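INPUT
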Amino acid sequence: MSLSCIIVEDLQVAANYLKNCCEKSGQVEVRGHFSNVTDALSFLNSNTVDLIFLDVEMPGANGFELLDQIAFSPKVILTTAKSEYAYNAFQYNVSDYLMKPFTFQRFMEALGKIQPSKETISTNSAADHIYIKTDGKLIRLNNDAILYIESMGDYVKFVTVDNKKYITHNTIKNLEEKVSKDHFLKVHRSYIVNLHKIDDMRENLLFIKGNEIPVSKANKADVFRRLNIV
Amino acid sequence: MNNLKTANAFVFNAEIDTNYLNSLYGEDFVYLQEVFETVLSDYQSLTDNIEYSYSSGNLVALRSAVHKIKPVFGFVGLTAVQLQCQQFEQICGTAGSPDSLAGDFETLKNKIFQSKQIIEEEKKKLEVFNSNCS
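OUTPUT
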């Protein structure tokens, strides 16, 4: 496995230590170290990485604001351990927390949690349906039956027009590449929506059959492009 | 990290948790010297931030500033100071005003000042030690 990463950390000694751990692991290539969100965002606007080591409390914007503004979904390892970030960590598909300083062994454990996306979807992106693995069986979902897909950490939830919810082991990042581009669009790092099911949009929210779906700044332009605005 | 040196002769200050340092760096004393140097180069700005937050009466900023410096002590093996920072963070979370934690702040401030002296001394010792080993 070879992962590309960036380190977003304003404590120099911690950033250096992380770099050393990455080099020592032989599994992670550090493509940059940034001591604030603005610089990291500038890099990520023109580069993608598999993994971000992210401190949350930094001068100016905090780490989660960075995740809000990037247009792809890398794996994230937080280099903080404040429990008050637990809810956000869940929302942002954080793979692990590292409380500084951590041993190399602990670092490797965190790295071990970075797994390739699970192949629980059987489809080609032009098809009018997908199959998902759930409850030990393959279930066919027609594209027209799906309202939206929501991230739940290492799982995703499919919400359908008949208000059923199917939970399967997968990620938004993986699904983004597999679902029909004609029907679906990622509007937030935690949501893919069926464009044909959108009822209305207000500010940074989409409404689909009474469900509020947030639209991230990074994805808003894409949403406007895909909506048939006259 | 750099080449390991078998150097049982190095004796750390008694305040430093050598087992903890060993769990982080093994016996890589060259890298350890770099760690102490890096910590010292950032020390002033980290402590200034704590002082400023306290003097301006901003408990949220003070808690954040102490949270920021906390792991620094871990990186140099001053685990008791790291724990003291942790406890002060908790006090900040429940304190009603800066005045109510004046005593705890003074204690922490003194400890942080003493810690800088220890880190400076250890860095010098490491410089000598590493130059003798090379």
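end of record. DSSP finds seven helices and 16 strands in chain A.
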